[in-house]
Recover the amino acids of this structure.
């Protein structure tokens, strides 16, 4: 299931748009219902446009968060840093993948973030979130 990545960019002449996709093992494609014994992850795809893309530099920081419906949240070992590529029309495709069994059975809200940090690690003027909605993790009976 694909979902929009919502960017707030406070830099004139620099625009970003993109989507995220939750998947259960790449060979099974997009999914909102994930079997406990399958690898899963999120594909981030975004494009930056505009002339200021030639002078900005830094790093994109990608994260995935799960909030369990009912009590509890799930911490995931997931931050991925992606080098900013200078240019006026640059597309990115990055994947954060998780091993099978890392999430307990249940229903979770999945949210992603992309933030921009400058060369010294300071937060930049571009942030993003994506709300994938509800995701079900389950264990199948054999």
């Amino acid at each position: 299931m694909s979902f929009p990545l919502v960017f707030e960019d406070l830099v004139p002449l620099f625009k970003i748009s993109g989507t995220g996709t939750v998947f259960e093992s790449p060979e099974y494609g997009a999914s909102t219902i994930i079997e406990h014994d399958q690898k899963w992850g999120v594909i981030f795809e975004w494009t930056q446009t505009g002339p200021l893309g030639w002078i900005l530099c830094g790093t994109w920081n990608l994260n995935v968060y799960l909030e369990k419906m009912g009590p509890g949240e799930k911490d995931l070992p997931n931050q991925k840093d992606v080098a900013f590529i200078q240019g006026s029309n640059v597309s990115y495709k990055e994947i954060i993948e998780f091993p099978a069994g890392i999430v307990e059975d249940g229903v979770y809200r999945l949210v992603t973030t992309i933030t921009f940090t400058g060369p010294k690690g300071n937060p930049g003027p571009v942030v993003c979130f994506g709300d994938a909605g509800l995701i079900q993790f389950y264990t199948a009976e054999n």
